[in-house]
């Protein structure tokens, strides 16, 4: 019913900064069900500034990030030829998604995501994709998350045919009520 993306390098936990994410995982979520639609892979970006430490990856390359100070020569070179915008490819990949979950998202990217109609959601350490999919599934069935309500209404307005919960070998069965938690 709605498509939701996650910035994750292990496809289990949300553990990447959106702008520097080299992997985005997209699921189609409906009440009680989620199906993996695709995985986007992007050029790895080295973060600079205060957000560089917000990537939650445990690999050595990310864990040993050093503060990068640019010299006057490097600043002049960047002014002459700005670096390629790595967010454009991610926005194109997320084109029909309702939301993106990430460990961190910069202000500029938040503005661009909102302008594209994609809800940016920052989550803390330890958030698994399955838990977040369950939260979205439950909200689709019972309500409670305003962005899900908006996405659901938009999906219903644009749907050609009503969608029913479906089952396939690659999907996840999710909860649709608090009773199922017991």
What do you see in this structure?
The protein is of the alpha/beta class. The chain has a single domain (2-43, 84-161, 173-181), classed as Dinitrogenase iron-molybdenum cofactor biosynthesis domain (Nucleotidyltransferase, domain 5, 2-Layer Sandwich). It is built from 6 helices and 6 strands; from the N terminus they run E-E-E-H-H-H-E-H-E-H-H-E. A 6-stranded mixed sheet has the order 5-4-1-2-3-6. Mean pLDDT is 80; it is low at 54-68.
Termini Cα gap: 26 Å
The number of distinct structural domains comes to: 1
Q: What spatial form do the alpha-carbon principal axes imply?
A: elongated
Give, in spatial order, the strands making up the sheet with the most strands: 5-4-1-2-3-6
CATH top level label: Alpha Beta
The fraction of residues assigned to DSSP E strands is: 15-25%
CATH architecture: 2-Layer Sandwich
Rounded mean pLDDT score: 80
Order of H and E elements: EEEHHHEHEHHE
CATH superfamily: Dinitrogenase iron-molybdenum cofactor biosynthesis domain
- Level of helix content? 25-40%
What is the β-strand count?
6
Taking the sheet with the most strands, its summary is: 6 strands, mixed
CATH topology: Nucleotidyltransferase, domain 5
* Low-pLDDT regions: 54-68
Derived structural class = alpha/beta
H/I helix tally = 6
């Amino acid at each position: 019913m709605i498509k939701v993306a996650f910035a994750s390098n292990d496809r289990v936990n949300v553990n990447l900064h959106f702008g520097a994410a080299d992997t985005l995982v997209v699921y189609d979520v409906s009440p009680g069900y989620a199906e993996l639609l695709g995985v986007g892979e992007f050029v790895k970006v080295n973060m600079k500034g205060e957000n560089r430490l917000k990537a939650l990856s445990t690999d050595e390359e990310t864990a040993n990030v050093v503060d990068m100070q640019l010299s006057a020569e490097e600043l002049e070179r960047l002014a002459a030829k700005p670096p390629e915008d790595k967010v454009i490819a991610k926005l194109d990949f997320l084109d029909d998604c309702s939301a993106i979950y990430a460990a961190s998202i910069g202000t500029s990217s938040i503005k661009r995501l909102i302008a594209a109609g994609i809800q940016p959601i920052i989550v803390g350490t330890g958030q698994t994709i399955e838990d977040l999919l369950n939260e979205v599934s439950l909200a689709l069935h019972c309500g409670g998350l305003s962005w899900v309500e908006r996405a659901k209404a938009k999906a219903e307005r644009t749907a050609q045919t009503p969608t029913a919960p479906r089952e396939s070998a690659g999907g996840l069965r999710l909860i649709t009520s608090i009773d199922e938690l017991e």
